[in-house]
């Protein structure tokens, strides 16, 4: 077996597939897999599966029955395609097939996948159908050159990443599909820029805080107890104590952008008193409840229990200091930070390939938000995983989202070379 790879030949072959890559990206964008509710997952999964089956992949479909949002109308459909070679490791390329809502402010048709110059526009072009298309072209090119490769090559298209991945990667990891020992190395072609290797992400804790009050006639507020004023006291302590405390915590994780190198807390929403869901005049009432959703992003140096305790201690302090202050707090969602070692095989393989293709050193980064790597790490027990793919991170979820064709070509070259390195490393 020839274990060296001819970089010039990879470059030539992938350059020659430019039209195929453009058409594939356009076809994927034109399937409007909007989540929520999870439209056209079945169509998109079968589109991918049919193509891989024509390349002699074994194709399997997994519907995540019972996962959030799964119904007969909106099945959480996933596709996993595997190309069997000889003995050796399995390299897996995982892309989510869902895209977020279109939103306002588009000049382009979000599902026409118009090619203008070097850009293909559309919802999901950058996040992440461009990355999915690049990985498919990388794998197909590789198979033309090395039909008798060692190990196994997998391509997956998974559901619901944008809503937590429970009907997608988490489900497949629980089944043992996207897990050790079935697979060994994972590349997730999320849009992190073609010269950057994303090692992981910060942690997440979402919670709902409710302050309690006492209802009364609004003309005599002294007879009641206003929950909104109690929440104002919470906000004041956030400003005076919590935000400065969070800003003082810096991580050694290479998080981008720079502002995300510290702990952060976003107040996602707040509502007190009468429901907003009415037209016309309100009735005079003292608010007996005020609810706030917080979105705390934490660092690998922090423990989730401490992150929670900081907020609970602040609230308990108010209960001691402030008359009639009472609250409840409820966990909504949590993700532990994850970061792959810089010396891990997949990091090394992709970094070296970036240097070979782009002639500059790769940059190691960590994502400010989370993505499906958390499930592969925690449930699948597989730590040799990164995100690497074409597209500019800040364009994700924006109006007039696009992906550049040259970025897809370059990253496809990087993926094909990395694939070769990883498949052959165990046998060397
Ligand atoms: Zn994404």
Describe this structure in words.
This protein is α/β, with parallel strands linked by helices. It folds into two domains: 283 residues, Aminopeptidase; 133 residues, Alpha-Beta Plaits (2-Layer Sandwich), CATH 3.30.70. 33% of the residues lie in helices and 22% in strands. The protein is built from ten helices and 16 strands. A six-stranded mixed sheet has the order 1-2-6-3-7-15. A four-stranded antiparallel sheet has the order 10-11-9-12, covered by helices on one side. Strands 4-5-16 form a three-stranded antiparallel sheet. Strand 4 and strand 5 form a beta hairpin. Helix 2 crosses helix 4 and helix 4 packs across helix 10. The structure holds zinc ion. Zinc ion binds next to helix 4.
What ligand species are in this complex? zinc ion
How big a fraction of the residues is strand?
15-25%
Structural class, by secondary structure, is alpha/beta
Instruction: Sketch the major β-sheet.
Output: 6 strands, mixed
Task: Please tag this protein with its features.
binds zinc ion; single chain; 33% helix; four-stranded antiparallel sheet; 10 helices; six-stranded mixed sheet; 16 strands; 22% strand; 428 residues; alpha/beta; Aminopeptidase; Alpha-Beta Plaits
Provide a concise account of the structure shown:
This protein has 428 residues and is an alpha/beta fold. The protein is built from ten helices and 16 strands.
Write the layout of secondary structure elements.
Layout: H1 7-16, H2 18-29, H3 41-54, E1 58-63, E2 77-84, E3 90-96, E4 115-116, E5 119-121, H4 125-145, E6 152-158, H5 169-174, E7 185-188, E8 196-201, E9 203-212, H6 227-247, E10 264-272, E11 289-298, H7 304-321, E12 327-335, E13 338-339, H8 345-358, E14 363-367, H9 373-378, E15 385-387, E16 402-404, H10 405-425
């Amino acid at each position: 077996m020839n274990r060296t790879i001819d970089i010039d030949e990879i470059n030539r072959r992938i350059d020659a597939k430019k039209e195929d890559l453009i058409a594939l990206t356009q076809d994927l964008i034109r399937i409007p897999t909007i989540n929520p509710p999870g439209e056209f997952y079945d169509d998109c999964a079968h589109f991918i599966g049919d193509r891989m089956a024509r390349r002699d992949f074994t194709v399997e479909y997994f519907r995540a029955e019972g996962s959030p949002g799964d119904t007969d109308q909106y099945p959480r459909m996933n596709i996993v395609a595997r190309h069997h070679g000889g003995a050796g490791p399995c390299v897996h390329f995982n892309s989510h097939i869902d895209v977020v809502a279109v939103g306002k402010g588009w000049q382009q048709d979000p599902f026409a996948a118009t090619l203008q110059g070097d850009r293909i526009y559309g919802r999901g072009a950058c996040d992440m159908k461009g990355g999915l298309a690049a990985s498919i072209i990388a794998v197909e090119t590789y198979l033309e050159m090395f039909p008798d490769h060692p190990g196994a090559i997998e391509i997956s298209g998974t559901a619901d990443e944008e809503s937590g991945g429970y009907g997608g990667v988490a489900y497949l990891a629980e089944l043992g599909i996207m897990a050790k020992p079935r697979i060994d190395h994972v590349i997730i072609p999320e849009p992190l820029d073609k010269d950057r290797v994303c090692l992981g992400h910060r942690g997440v804790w979402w919670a709902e805080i409710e302050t309690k009050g006492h209802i009364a006639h609004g003309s005599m507020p002294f007879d009641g107890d206003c929950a909104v004023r109690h929440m104002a006291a919470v906000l004041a302590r956030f400003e005076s104590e919590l935000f400065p405390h969070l800003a003082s915590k810096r991580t050694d994780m290479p998080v981008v952008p720079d502002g995300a190198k510290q702990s952060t807390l976003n107040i996602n929403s707040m509502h007190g008193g009468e429901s907003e869901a009415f037209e016309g005049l309100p009735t005079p009432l003292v608010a007996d409840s005020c609810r706030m959703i917080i979105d705390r992003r934490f660092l690998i140096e922090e423990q989730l229990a401490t992150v929670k305790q900081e907020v609970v201690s602040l609230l308990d302090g108010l209960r001691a200091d402030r008359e009639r202050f009472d609250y409840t707090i409820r966990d909504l969602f949590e993700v532990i930070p994850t970061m792959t070692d810089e010396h891990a095989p997949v990091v090394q393989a992709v970094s070296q390939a970036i240097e070979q293709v782009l002639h500059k050193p790769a940059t190691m980064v960590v994502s400010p938000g989370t993505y499906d790597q958390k499930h592969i790490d925690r449930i699948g027990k597989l730590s040799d995983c990164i995100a690497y793919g074409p597209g500019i991170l800040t364009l994700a979820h924006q109006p007039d989202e696009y992906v550049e064709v040259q970025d897809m070509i370059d990253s496809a070259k990087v993926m094909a070379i990395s694939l070769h390195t990883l498949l052959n490393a165990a046998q060397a």
